[in-house]
Amino acid sequence: MSKKIIIIGGGIAGLAAGSYAAMNGFSPKIYEMHSLPGGVCTGWQRDGFWFDGCIHWLIGTGNDAGTFKQIWDELGALKNKKIINHDIFKTIINNKGQEFVVYTNADRFRDYMLTLAPEDHEAIDSFYYDTLEIADMELPIKPQKMWNIRDYLQFISQNKSIFKSMGRLSKISIKEYAKSFTNPLLKEMIPKIFPLPDFPAVAAFMTLGHLHYKNAGWPEGGAYSFSKSIVTHYLEMGGKIQYNLKVVKILVKKKKAIGILLDNGEKVYADYIISAADGYSTIFQMLEGKYLDEKIKKHYDETPLFTPLIMASFGVNQGLSFFDHSTDFEFSKPKKVGSNYINSINIKHYNFDPTMAPDGKAVVIVGFETSYKFWEEMYEKKEEYEYEKEKIHNDLLKILDEIIPNFSQNVNVSDIATPMTWVRYTGNWKGSFEGWLINTKTLRKKIPKKLPKLKNFYMIGQWTTIGGGLPPAAKDGRDIVQYICKKEKLRFHTNF
Ligand SMILES: Cc1cc2nc3c(=O)[nH]c(=O)nc-3n(C[C@H](O)[C@H](O)[C@H](O)COP(=O)(O)OP(=O)(O)OC[C@H]3O[C@@H](n4cnc5c(N)ncnc54)[C@H](O)[C@@H]3O)c2cc1C
């Protein structure tokens, strides 16, 4: 009889683990507390408009072979999907009204920057070569914990020319990198491409490089369609998923995870338990904080999280082809939106994908960062919470009317997601949509996927990697099954 694997959570990590477990002859069953698959990789339909809650760029969508491309193929994630590659990554309009366009093609971006700042030709060239070089890094598909000497040697020989640049760019933020420009506009705008505090230059160039090589596109249909493709493939392979049941406890006997307790009181037993759910609730609630060491405790006490978001989605009766698909607008002075004061706003539209809105109409999504504590308290008082959302909605319409003529008159349907929306649907701790913040200090942190003194139990997904993201979540699911196969003395294989 095949060994049973229980997977807690049907986000991308959980779906991937389930898929690889099914490919390797195990009996996987995913328990997902929500009524849908995908976790934070989701979207929702309102009156014919798709409000996408996730994907901006997806690494691994290119035609060339590579680790993530292989994983998406194995999972059936991109099957029959058109990939849309943008010419422009984003446009930034600063508080003086100056515009800066970030082209995805590195040659075009270099030429554009040279016209803006010919005096910075050396710094622009370095920026160009760093963009091309970093994305060339070949990440082996085998889990690093299972590498042998030959794997290490191969990795070193394939990437040795890149290591020096990787080292240099891992130590500095993109803001520090931008000091190499003398032109005030470039100095100001380069860090704003990735407006996260202390964002590592290496992560910035990795993204820009994949965009240049057309390996970081948008899969037609967006996030929910992407998750749906993976779950469909998983079910076709005989995998099982149970929705609408929350795992409240992980059952342990003699320091070995043996099953789960569900919120309907049912107990289910298995040979292996994998949690692909939020890390805090796994360690401190489902396992009652009993399997910890000082290092893990310190990590949960000290490591910063991504600041949660307000995401406002609008279905509108106008095409909006006059501005780019993603634009950051800075205000000359802070604007009040509900109880938040904001200095800038990101506006996205999805006209590049005809499946996202009915003909001639458009989806517009705006987002900005907010305080979790504020929303946690507000959520206790239902009426005030709804009122605050209403205020945000109305204030945003006023702002959007200033940017897009007659916007509010054309709104058909709208939706406001707060940090509590993420908590309610996915349990993600403090509404952090991508887990642990990536910066130059956290970049190299390794988060264990096993807990001390607990056998047959593993953790995967965005709470076990720094910076989150769809590709690492899926690779985690692959790695863990490969690891279990090794433990069971089975040869790991995929069906692709
Ligand atoms: C706005 C936004 C934009 C993003 N943009 C990108 C992007 O452009 N590119 C990119 O690569 N990544 C992006 N990401 C990040 C990426 O989506 C995530 O890092 C990734 O999807 C995380 O997957 P996961 O499976 O680890 O976690 P999750 O998606 O959080 O999945 C966890 C699952 O576990 C379930 N669960 C939790 N507790 C329990 C329980 N007790 N019982 C049962 N089920 C439970 C939850 O309901 C959820 O379905 C974005 C995320 C957001 C929110």
TrEMBL record:
It holds the Pfam family Amino_oxidase. Residues 12-484 form the Amine oxidase domain. InterPro entries: Amino_oxidase (IPR002937), CrtISO-like (IPR045892), FAD/NAD-bd_sf (IPR036188). This is Amine oxidase domain-containing protein. It comes from Candidatus Lokiarchaeum ossiferum.
